[in-house]
Amino acid sequence: MSEIENRTEDGFKDFIGESKALRRVLDDIETVAPTSSTVLIYGETGTGKELIARSLHNLSSRKANAFVRLNCAAIPAGLLESELFGHEKGAFTGAVAQRVGRFELADRGTIFLDEIGEIPLELQPKLLRVLQEREFERLGGMRTLRSDARLVAATNRDLKAMVDEQKFRSDLYYRLDVFPIRVPPLRERAEDIPLLVRRFVQQFSERNNRMIDTILSETMEALIRYHWPGNIRELQNVVERSVIISKGATLMVALDELRADEGLKTNQSCEALQQILNETERTQILRALERSNWVIAGPKGAAARLGIKRTTLQSRMQRLGIRLLRTPVTQSPALPSATSNEADGRVLEWPNRNPPHSDREPELWHPAYA
C-alpha cells in the first residue's frame, strides 16, 4: 500500500497521486493542520487549492465547526466588505436587513479566502485588523464583534511582486505568509496523470451510464505529454468530454486539439515520458500476474484480469522484460529481482532489457488494472 493510500484514512482520500511533488504538499498539510496558524496557498488556477484548504480544516480541531469559502475575485469591490464583515440594516442603498458576514459565520471554524490578491487596497487594513486583533465591525454598525476564525488564503498571483509594485500591503502580506504551501502544476507531476485519468474515467462513466474500460497507449502518452495550462480542472473537463463522445468501451480523446494547442509542451524528455508509461504498465501487469498466481490464460488468468488478449499480454511482457517461467508458484511471492534463480518458477523482471517492438495490435491502457 502506498503512502498516499495509507493517508486516505487520515483525510487525504480526495488527493490522487504518488509523485514526490504531491507528497511534499501532503507533508505540509499534516504539519500545519493541527495548529491555528494562517496558511497561504500558492498555485496556478485549477491545481486544487480549495481541496487543500478543506483538508486543513478537516484535519484540525475546528472540523466540527463551519468551513466558510469566499472567492474574492467573484465579488464586486463595493460589496466585498459587506461579504467579509456583514452590514446593518440601512447601511447603504438596498441594505433592507441586517447581514452576517463571512468572518462572523466562520467563528471557531475556518474561513477560506480564494484569490486574496484581488482584495482592494482600501479594504486590506480591515482584513489586517481582523487577523491581528480578531475584531471587526459590520458595515454601518458601531458594535465591535469578535471572530476566532482561522484564515486560509489562496492566490495564483505573486504577492511579493505585488508588494514591490505597491499593489498589496506589505504588513498584510507578512501576516498572511506565515505558512506558505506551494501547489505544483500538473505538468510537474506528470506521473500522477494516469491515476487521475483512471479516477475521472470511472467517475464520469458511472455518472453518464457508460462502460469505458480501455484507453489506447497513444492516448495516454498524449495526455501525459500535454502541458495542461488549466491543470487538474482542465484534465477533468477533457476526460468528461471524452467519456460523453465515446461510443464504445475505448475512451476517445480529441488528440488533434491537444496537439494543435500551443500548450503541447513538456519539461520532460521523451525518455522520461516513456519511463513513466513503462513503469505504470509494468506495475499493473505484475500485480495482475501475482493475483492470478502467475497464470496468463484462462478465465481467472492475468490477461482476463487486465481485459486484454493473452497474445497482447505476452507481447507486452516481452517488451517490458517480464519473463514467466513454466512452473507456477503456489503462493503469491514478493516481486522478484533480476537476480532470481530461474528454477524457482517466479516471474523475472529485467528492467534494462527492452526488446524492439514487433508488429501487434495497438497497445491498451486499462483503468481497471488496479
Uncertain parts: 1-9, 262-269, 326-370
Strand order of the main beta sheet, please? 2-5-8-1-9
CATH superfamily of the largest domain: P-loop containing nucleotide triphosphate hydrolases
**Major sheet: size, sense and barrel closure?**
5 strands, parallel
Number of strands: 13
User: Which fold name is given in CATH as the topology of the largest domain?
Assistant: Rossmann fold
| Whole-angstrom Rg | 26 Å
List keywords for this structure.
370 residues; alpha/beta; Rossmann fold; 3 domains; two-stranded antiparallel ribbon; 13 strands; 40% helix; disordered C terminus
Structure, described:
By secondary structure, this protein is an alpha/beta fold. It folds into three domains: 3-184, P-loop containing nucleotide triphosphate hydrolases (Rossmann fold); 187-260, Helicase, Ruva Protein, domain 3 (Orthogonal Bundle); 270-369, no CATH class. It is 40% helix and 12% strand. The protein contains 15 helices and 13 strands. A hairpin with a 6-residue loop joins strand 6 (135-137) and strand 7 (144-146). Helix 9 (193-207) crosses helix 11. The longest helix has 22 residues, at 270-291. It is elongated and about 80 Å long.
